[in-house]
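hi got a favour to ask and not much time before my train. below you get a single protein, a line of residues and a line of whole numbers that encode the local backbone shape. could you go over both lines and see whether the tokens make sense for that sequence. a few lines back from you is plenty, here it is:
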Amino acid sequence: MAGLLFQQSERVRHSLPPGSGPGIIAVTTAHTGYALVVLCHGVRNLPGFQNRVKGSPGRRVERILHSWAKIRKRPGFSSYNSDEKGVGLSPDTRSDAGKAMAGAKAAEAVAPGMILGLGTGSTVAFFLASLAERFREGEIPGIVGVPTSAWTQRRSEELGIPLVTLQEARALDLTVDGADEVDPQLDLIKGLGGALLREKMVAQATRHMVIIVDEGKMVERLGMRSPLPVEVVPFSWESHLSFLESLGAQPALRSGEDGTPYLTDNGNPILDCRFPEGIPDPMGLQEALAARAGVVESGLFLGMAGEVLVGTEGGVDRITRTGEEP
């Protein structure tokens, strides 16, 4: 099967399990490992999936998934691929469906002339595809984006999204990015894709930050599932191990598929820090890391997200920080 396939619900809904409601059903095919993605009956009425192409409801979703299929099938594509700077795809196709829906929903919030921060990661890949589709259709003229990684820059250029540097943009209207964990206060762990420093620089320059995730990224306490990435300078990086252990972490040097140290776009290694019981005091930990010479940045994004879009099997849930409006 050549990549991801997409079919209109009217042709296939009778073959779906009884009770299948609105949403994207993704079924992995045993002989290829790729997914057949079906738009279930009624999904056309969900927010963000309006009929944008005459005579073809849901055409944008088809293009998003087709575009993502090309990325997914690249040789060596994995969560720690040195060429793609850590942008990978979970084999969980339900997760992919949630990411696709959240990404498409976020793209609907973009208005003409906006200056955008473009995040990094597998969920952002869906957002970029949907954003490019709206731009090509003439719905959002005048937009420009600031990429947060070399991968995002390459992918945006492939899709025809106009780009500027952070220096040229200065202030951003909206940043859309993913996250590895989101807690009930909308605090985040980011950086498994390796772009945490640039992502945080762009986030600090934006008026409103939207995080797009699948429901598996929602946690009660930061650090319960994902390690906390800490980017450090190459010089004597080993000296930070005992310091991080004193903070309750179990640090490990991130390595690439070939066993060599993983390096960010900035040429720095990353120490992935596990906290077996989670992080009890994220702000205190952030302050301790910020005060440590040789620590470039951590993946703690505290008080920065104004809105989180959570892709689920049934649609997209929107969570906003108290007092913040998009």
Observations:
- Residues 289 and 295 are 7 Å apart (CA to CA).
- The chain is about 25% helix and 20% strand.
